[in-house]
Amino acid sequence: MMTNKVRVATTSLAGCFGCHMSFLDMDERLVGLLEHVEFDRSPLTDIKHCQPCDIGLVEGGLCNAENVHVLREFRNNCKILIAVGACAINGGVPAMRNHYEVQECLQEAYLNGVGVDNPMIPSDPELPLLLSKVHPLHEVVRVDYYLPGCPPSGDAFYAILSDLLAGREPSLSKTMLHYD
Amino acid sequence: MQQLLQGEPCPDQAVNGLMPHLLHQLHAIQQQYRYIPTQQSKQVSETLQLPLAQIESVIDFYSFFTRTPRGQYTLLFSNCTSCGDLALMRELCQLLKVEQGITRTDGLVSIDETSCIGMCDHGASLLINDRVIAHLDSTRLKQIAEYIESKTPLDQWSPELFSINTQIYKKGLLLEQPLEQGSALTAAFKLGSDALIQTLKQSGLRGRGGAGFTTGMKWEFCRQAQGAQHYVVCNADEGEPGTFKDRILLTDHAHELFEGMTVAAYALGAQQGYLYLRGEYRYLVPHIQQVLTERRQQQLLGQNILGQQGFTFDIELVVGAGAYICGEESALLESLEQKRGVPRIRPPFPVTHGYLGQPTVVNNVETFVAAAHIVSKGANWFKAHGTEQSAGSKLLSISGDCTKAGIYEYAFGVTVQQVLDDCGASDAQAVQVGGPSGTLVHRKDFGRQLAFEDLATGGSIMIYGQQRDLLKVVRNFTHFFAHESCGFCTPCRVGTPLLRKYLDKIEAGHGTAYDREEMARLAKLVKKRSHCGLGQTAANPILDLLEHFPHVCEQRLLHQEYEPFFNLDAALETTRQLSHRDDAEAHLA
Ligand SMILES: Cc1cc2nc3c(=O)[nH]c(=O)nc-3n(C[C@H](O)[C@H](O)[C@H](O)COP(=O)(O)O)c2cc1C
Ligand code: SF4
Ligand code: SF4
Questions:
Q1: Domain that holds residue B310
Q2: I need a surface site. Which of B133, B255, B352, B572 has the fewest CB within 10 A?
Q3: Shared domain check, B221 and B81
Q4: Fold of the domain built from segment(s) A6-95+132-176
Q5: Cα of A145 from ligand 1 centre, angstroms
Q6: Within a domain: residue B589?
Q7: pTM of the predicted protein model
Q8: φ, ψ at B389 (rounded to 5°)
Q9: Is residue B378 part of a domain?
Q10: Ligand 2 pocket, mutate which of A84, A87, A89 (most atoms under 8 A from CB)
Q11: Beta-carbon separation of B579 and A122 below 8 A
């Protein structure tokens, strides 16, 4: 499967998929993009593991052990890794739990919460363990670029990808960084 | 406990005449209850006719107010590189069996750290219920612990503990010849306000608080501005770590300061002045009040000052509550207006829209003192000293690794080397000029001059000998800014804690070249994008270190591409235990 297309992988860690939805907001520009781009691991392709890629887009921060494994897989395979959205950059909404101890969170969810049946903290090895705090990506791997926003607009996705495809240093216009 | 409370008069009652002000009310409550109970906030809201939300936001803004009880003895150790020693804090914590930041269960004592308290020439120091104890060592700590355990009221502690005796090693223009009381005012009346402002402009006097704006021009702009009232405000917040020269002026030259403010009032047509004093200097309040009373008695304040018909002016004292940002003039005005000290958007500047939206002159303590001297002695007397662009003299607060820490007054233009020679600093590797927001000067640059056109300084000179770890010093400064950021704008609120994180990582030996580059990138961003002077200077120590002392950082770096910010496997420990798991998936390498 040798082509000249740029391989792009995307994933969502501790995020809400809002960034991916916004990615789709590139709308018809996606068609043009697909002439130069091929998707590797991504919710769009359902490929389970990354092959070597040019660009990795990661939405969401790190809340559990599995997030760490996926992120490392991306870092190991992607030449350029981009932290996409507030959660990936700062921890975002999931990091609101950082004001509490992880123990308190689990107790509230599985022991003391309203309507909890058969209270117990799950121990199934299938379930990834929670990290004590939610972390942004750059605290666990090296990150090359940050695409801010919650979520970044379709225009912002298009701008950063166009720049990278054209071999330019990516830069977002002021209007794309203005959020109110 | 109750007796102890009664044994200690609340300072604001003891010092009668402190004006009604939210900060004063809250301080009195904090003194009495050791925190601000909600019930009391509601009462203050009613008496001062301020919304409860404003009261609560103010409580949370200033570090000396708390919503949970501190100890009957509340100790705050300075964490400054000159007057702080946190090892001593930990020692006292052990002696008193108390954890930092957590009030002992019997409510007797709490111990925590605080930003520089301006005792840099006195070695390790602390605040205890608004009073200062300097020259801390193990012996003193034992003494303090005994007094506390035996619940001895502070008034009965050995007075020696509280003595503060600052050495003035070098006197210049201002300190050499004290001004005769009233002489500047008499001269001002003779000149009239126009000529007075001209004199100030000719003298070349520039603000001593740091920014160095021409004082005569500031007064002129303010005088020209339309307003129902004009105000004169003295900035005695002196929060820049390493600075203590205003404390000496307030202690020994308060008359000259008030004379300068009164001259300003005459020039502007102002009737009311305020002295905004940092909370750390609250022990000076009785003295300052005494000087104000004397001046009223001598007709140097009040109605028809010195018989000048229609010239009425008085000065009130407002005491802050532990917030470095309140030294920034517009934040100071917000604080005077009983609000959180958040810097205003400028322009408009205080000279046109200051206190209560009226034209206001805000000047540093030393600026007012110098203005009084100039009006009395003439522009040329002043201009004959210093350099072309920096007329006159500057008071320096010198501390750190030298044998003679104290106050020095030099004509502008003196070299760093000269200063070091005079204060007995023979092995300095670096000098921080102008405090953390200033410049870190390498020994190869000790030939540089102290002057607005070269090394500007508000007066802080901190000396670091060969033994000092400069990375620790810069880390200390970076923590200071992250702590003091007022939180108003994102580049500083988010940026300063991130800088702190990178520096902590590098200091702990976990940083890589990548971290250093990211930190430098972030530092430039914080500097460029922040709203006020705090954020705009917060990254200076890091940038100076990277530029002039690259090896200090380099030595600490790991030679690998990347290192995480935390131990991943340890971050799973709690959930491993809660779920009773120890399988391979329950670990991260
Ligand atoms: C974060 C910050 C803290 C400041 N702290 C002080 C201070 O403690 N004392 C002071 O006189 N000026 C301080 N300034 C400078 C004031 O904003 C203002 O420029 C000064 O009071 C003007 O007086 P001057 O012209 O007499 O220097 C500070 C500025 C900033 C940005
Ligand atoms: S940044 Fe916003 S949109 Fe994106 S994953 Fe986080 S919460 Fe969702
Ligand atoms: S730069 Fe910092 S201190 Fe100044 S307004 Fe912004 S957050 Fe507040």
A1: 170-383
A2: B352
A3: no
A4: Rossmann fold (3.40.50)
A5: 38
A6: no
A7: 0.93
A8: -95, -10
A9: yes
A10: A87
A11: yes
Distance of residue A22 Cα from the nearest chain B Cα, in angstroms: 24
Q: Between A and B, how many residue pairs show a Cβ–Cβ distance under 8 A?
A: 58
Mutate to test the interface with A, among B525, B528, B579 (most CBs of A within 10 A): B579
Tell me whether A141 touches chain B (CB under 8 Å).
Answer: yes
Query: In this structure, are B463 and B479 located in the same domain?
Result: no
Distance B113 CA to ligand 3 centre (A): 22
Report the run of H or E that residue A30 belongs to, with start and end. helix A29-33
B525 touches chain A (CB under 8 A): no
Reported as half-sphere exposure (CB side, CA atoms, 13 A), residue B412 has a value of: 27
Q: What is residue A3's predicted lDDT score, i.e. its pLDDT?
A: 67
Q: Residue B546 falls within a domain, yes or no?
A: yes
Angle at A150 between CA A144 and CA A154, to 5 degrees: 80
Dist CA B164 CA B120 (whole Å): 11
> What is the full per-residue pLDDT of chain B (589 aa) written as tens digits?
333 333 344 444 444 579 999 999 999 999 999 999 999 999 999 999 999 999 999 999 999 999 999 999 999 999 999 999 999 999 999 999 999 999 999 999 999 999 999 999 999 999 999 999 999 999 999 999 999 999 999 999 999 999 999 899 999 999 999 999 999 999 999 999 999 999 999 999 999 998 899 999 999 999 999 999 999 999 999 999 999 999 999 999 999 999 999 999 999 999 999 999 999 999 999 999 999 999 999 999 999 999 999 999 999 999 999 999 999 999 999 999 999 999 999 999 999 999 999 999 999 999 999 999 999 999 999 999 999 999 999 999 999 999 999 999 999 999 999 999 999 999 999 999 999 999 999 999 999 999 999 999 999 999 999 999 999 999 999 999 999 999 999 999 999 999 999 999 999 999 999 999 999 999 999 999 999 999 999 999 999 999 999 999 999 999 999 999 999 999 999 999 999 999 999 999 9
Task: Clarify whether residues B363 and B477 are in a common domain.
Answer: no
Query: In whole angstroms, what is the distance from residue B474 CA to residue B432 CA?
Result: 10
H or E segment to which residue A39 belongs: strand A37-39
Same domain, residue pair B203 and B104: no
CA distance A25 to chain B (A): 28
Q: What is the ipTM of this complex?
A: 0.94
DSSP B306: G
CATH number at residue B495: 1.20.1440.230
SS (H, E, C) B527-582: HHHCCCHHHHHHCHHHHHHHHHCHHHHHCCCECCCCCCCCCCCHHHHHHHHHCCCC
Nearest neighbour of B588 by CB, restricted to A65, A102, A138: A65
Smallest Cα distance from B524 to chain A, Å: 17
User: Ligand 3: which of B534, B536, B537, B540 to mutate, most ligand atoms within 8 Å of CB?
Assistant: B534
Q: Whose CA is nearest to atom 24 of ligand 1?
A: B207
B453, B468, B483 - which closes a domain: B468
B179 in the same domain as B78:
no
Beta strand B126-128 with B131-133: parallel, antiparallel or unpaired? antiparallel
| Cβ burial B249-264 (10 Å sphere, 16+ → b, else e) | bbeebbbbbbbbbbbb
Assess whether B335 and B368 both reside in one domain: yes
Same domain, B110 and B247: no
Ligand 2 centroid to Cα of residue B486, in Å, is: 27
Whether residue B570 is contained in a domain is answered as no
CATH number for B90 = 3.40.30.10
- Are B277 and B302 in the same domain? yes
Work out the minimum CA distance from A2 to partner chain B, whole angstroms.
Answer: 30
Q: Does residue B433's CB lie within 6 angstroms of at least one atom of ligand 3?
A: no
Tokens representing B302 are 């009040």
CATH number at residue B345: 3.40.50.11540
Residue ranges for chain A with pLDDT beneath 50? 1
Which residues in chain B have their CB less than 8 angstroms from residue A131's CB? 568, 571-572, 575
Look up tokens 């975002």; give the residue: A92
